[in-house]
Amino acid sequence: MSVVHQLSPGWLLDHLSFINNINYQLHQHHEPCCGKNEPTSSVHFDSLQMDSLTSFGTSATFNAFDSATQPDNDDRGNCEISIQNYVFRSELFNVTKPYIISAVHNECQQRNEKEYPVGGVKEENCLSIIGKIRGLILDGSSELIQEGFKSGFLHPLSEKWDKCSEPVTLPLDTCNLSELCAMAKHLPSLNETELQALQLMEENISVTEQDLFSRVVENNSSFTKMITLMGQKYLVPPKSSFLLSDISCMHPLLNCKKTYDVIVIDPPWQNKSVKRSNRYSYLSPLQIKQIPIPKLAAPNCLVITWVTNRQKHLRFVKEELYPSWSVDIVAEWHWVKITNSGEFVFPLDSPHKKPYEGLILGRVREKTIPLRNAGIKVLPIPDHKLIVSVPCTLHSHKPPLAEVLKDYVKPDGECLELFARNLQPGWTSWGNEVLKFQHLDYFVALESKS
Q1: Residue 267 and residue 316 in contact, taking contact as beta carbons nearer than 8 Å
Q2: Are 97 and 159 in contact, with CB atoms under 8 Å apart?
């Protein structure tokens, strides 16, 4: 369970617990009887060349097996099977202190007041909105944080804990997934009408690299699979599916002829820091509007969009984006980021970085198509709820929404995440970095069992 506490203001979440409750378990067959001492749930995909497109999609294959069952083989009768479990690196959630101390914050605030004096109706409206959000977050998060202290989930910062905290060394992004997706756009197109989702099942199957960027990949088994791409290993959790592609190559998702009851969107919003750092590519408002939500959404689909704190982006979602998708706004929530000791990660009144982000929730207007499970009723979505959690130190690793949304979505609903950077059971995920946080280096292997 990722929900530690649920109170009237919202939820206190344990993101790390959610990840580790996923069955990250590999079944491995070992020599001598198996011939190869490697995971049977591996998917090999190693021949991509970053500096050349000549061999891209021609000869390389990746092979998929189910980790529980294999094709009949006389030599497998006494084959030894070991189980390898993985957990997410807990130090990636070790946020012991705020990112900005008060002295630095005060200096930034004074400089900001000199450079950007407030004046005019627009600024006054913004300040009024920010003031209302401030009160909501201050009161609501305080109640949830106090409950976290009572249960022992949160702990006051001790001097010993503070001294023990060390900078975390993150894995190098040696396999640039977004760059691979950009390269894939130059591949010759396949016959889209004949392409079906690639299922990682018990039979051996071989597909070209071209297939990976042209098909939705599904792991319908009860165990984790491992994909090897450019020599880098990625864990694919059970009951999950994904499409690794550029935004211009979303058609495999549409070709599945599936519609979704929940769509979570985390667009790469344009802002000054992104422009300066060149950390990731961003999309213009026009590009975001062109995402084919009307084709992907089931009747009464719940659409949730992560939004930065810029009023410009909030207005765009409410006044332009959702109307263009025929989505009616039903609620606005906030994700509040705290340390392990219950402090905001940024000062609440910081003029630059805020300790919270917004979520705009809306429903697709009912279509003429009959609703799925029409007889099952769900609760109305409440407004102004808070999701409070310790953030992952990995950039843009958002907290899971599955448990928070369960009361507002019909059972067995189809769920989709767009611009995802990780996978989760029961969801389809799309993005040009959709496997990023599934990299094996973000996990720790526990002692294997036979």
Answers
A1: no
A2: no
Q: Which residues pair with 3 in a beta bridge?
A: 13
The pTM is what?
0.83
Q: Which two tokens stand for residue 438?
A: 């599934």
Amino acid letter for position 4: V
Strand order in the sheet with 198-199: 3-7, 10-13, 386-389, 327-337, 356-364, 297-307, 260-265, 415-418, 427-431, 240-244, 217-219, 198-199
**Whole-number pLDDT of residue 111:** 45
Tell me the per-residue pLDDT of 328-368, one tens digit each, with 9 for 90 and over: 999 999 999 999 999 999 999 888 789 999 999 999 987 65
Query: What letter would DSSP give residue 317?
Result: I
CB 153 within 8 A of CB 341: no
Rounded to whole angstroms, the Cα distance separating 362 from 327 reads 6
8 Å CB contact between 388 and 10 = yes
Distance, CA of 196 to CA of 198 (rounded, Å): 6
CB 64 within 8 A of CB 247: no
Low-confidence ranges of the chain (pLDDT < 50): 34-37, 40, 46-75, 103-105, 107-119, 202-207, 274, 276-279
pLDDT digits (tens, 9 = 90+) for 169-194: 666 655 688 777 777 776 666 555 55
What pLDDT sits at residue 315?
Answer: 95
Q: H/E element holding 228?
A: strand 225-229
Strand partners, 228: 44, 233
CA distance 345 to 137: 13
Check residue 439 and report its DSSP letter: B
Look-up of token digits 């109170």 = 7
